[in-house]
Amino acid sequence: EGSGATGVWTRVETEAPFVGRYSHGAVLVDDVIVVVGGVDGSPGATLRLTAVHLPSGRLLEAAAIVPGEEPFLPHNCAVALVGSELVILGGGGNCFSFGTHLNIGSIKIDLRPIVETCASGG
């Protein structure tokens, strides 16, 4: 009581379709939520970032190639926002045919360009 919370869920409408996924992470930067990784049915292990400007519903998709010899599986990982940098730790995946793969180390991505572009519509 007194917190202003209503306990009512509302749907966020986006200008473009939002691709559903699971085993993802998310961080909030001002009015932009950035959904990180996850499994969405697309082939490969590209790190997908989806930014949504909550007031306008503007949606921006971005992809990052993670350097290194080992594949980086962008699901089941921990994400944190440190200043304007997204830090991704751990994660990986498993398959009955190929076994378990664990991501080694951490990666950082500066979210400023993505957040500014999404928020401004440019």
How would you describe the overall organization of this protein?
This protein is mainly beta and 122 residues long. It is 7% helix and 39% strand. It is built from one helix and nine strands, in the order βββββββββα. It has one helix at residues 112-120, and strands at residues 25-29, 32-36, 47-53, 58-64, 78-82, 85-89, 92-95, 99-102, 106-110. Strands 1-2-3-4 form a four-stranded antiparallel beta sheet, covered by helices on one side. The chain is globular.
**What structural class do helix, strand and pairing data support?**
mainly beta
Strand content: 35-45%
Order of helices and strands: EEEEEEEEEH
Please compute the radius of gyration using only Cα atoms.
16 Å
Distance between the termini: 40 Å
Oligomer: single chain
Strand order of the largest sheet: 1-2-3-4
Outline, from the CA principal axes? globular
Mean of residue pLDDT values: 87
Approximate helicity band:
under 10%
Low-confidence stretches: none
Largest sheet: 4 strands, antiparallel
Number of helices: 1
Strands, count: 9
